[in-house]
Automatic annotation (TrEMBL):
Signal sequence range: none
Xref: InterPro entries: M18_aminopeptidase_2 (IPR022984), Peptidase_M18 (IPR001948), Peptidase_M18_dom2 (IPR023358)
Family matches, as CDD domains: M18_DAP (cd05658)
Lineage: Bacteria, Pseudomonadati, Pseudomonadota, Gammaproteobacteria, Pseudomonadales
Family under the similarity heading: Belongs to the peptidase M18 family.
Any one annotated GO CC term: cytoplasm
Keyword set, alphabetical order: Aminopeptidase, Hydrolase, Metal-binding, Metalloprotease, Protease, Zinc
Protein's recorded name: Probable M18 family aminopeptidase 2
Gene: apeB
Amino acid sequence: MYNAPSQGLLDFLHNSPSPFHATQSMCAALQAAGYIALDERETWQLEAQGRYYVTRNDSSIIAFKLGQHDPAAHGIRMVGAHTDSPCLKVKPQPELTAHSYWQLGVEVYGGVLLSPWFDRDLSLAGRVTFKHEQQLQSCLIDFKQAIATIPSLAIHLNREANTGWAINAQTELPPILAQLHGEESQDFRSLLAEQLQREHGIQDAEVLDYELCFYDSQPAAVIGLQQDFIAGARLDNLLSCYAGLTALLNSDDQYSQILVCTDHEEVGSNSACGADGPFLEQVLRRILISEDDFVRSVQHSLLISADNAHGIHPNYADKHDGNHGPLLNQGPVIKVNANQRYATNSETSSFFKLLCQQTKVPVQSFVTRSDMGCGSTIGPITAGQLGVQTIDIGVPTFAMHSIRELAGSKDLGYLVQVLQAFYNSTNLP
């Protein structure tokens, strides 16, 4: 079995504290593998069997390889994931001062599991846009060191803390950055300008705006008595991005292949660079010039939507359907929902099961309890946009949407192995 090294994922997570940084990390890996960067604003001159990538908004990326076989007749093998994760984002006018403490107002992005954000060593990363020498520029920044925290209220002052405590996102989440003295005040944009100088050597920048998120500065790690688990932030869904990228870089050149990793999945994907926007379709139409080739190729293609699944938690087993409790380290999970929250159907599911059989990868199934709601992915959105046959899969995970999630260390290798087999597959359903 191909066993993708966990250290590669740990490094990827460390270098990808925001969707912008995740996209940058993937660009670097693709460039090192000989992929050519394309600009959407320019005319593309694509060559037979060429390897390319294109980004949008610095936070979404599509990498593609043109195979030896005509994609209109043999389809495109597509893997989709997303670059964003639930987090706390800094507000436009964030400065708060109370009782000598400097805090920042934050907005909750996505379905954040809030309680684990307390008492963590937080850092800050993202994109900053500024004026420098009369030119508008943008740069990515990452403070890396712990610069903030959200202290819990002592249980002596909150006797309900362990019996059901509703967290107020407006008043209880602003992180503390520093303690001020006397009449001292702080300007957040000045702090960002100083970081631009430290990180990029840019002096006298006038910061105009930013998209910044707090993150846990504790690095991801392989843990457990027998090293069974990967613990870290943003496993949902950077683990899938990393697995898809690794599979693409190790696949052969017979068939055309795409990896699409888009932003804003955690808030519905409805954006210019999200899966519910035109990014993927517009790239495909530039690869497949004629309308006939475009439609034929889509109908010959298949998309694997890779996004983490809920593993059965031993302390909360009743939250799962009794026949559908995926276990960590027992292989990827096929996600099914009768109401099309997942795009899996019997044919795409059977194709994936056959791939797993052929590659000796264990496979599991997940269906939400009938009396509980179900999340969704980019799978149904992309299927609805393109009309491409799709399957939703993912590795089982604990604590999804927490500041620190948990996955099985073996499942990374399983996922890479089956995705690589998919990229190399001769026949699609």
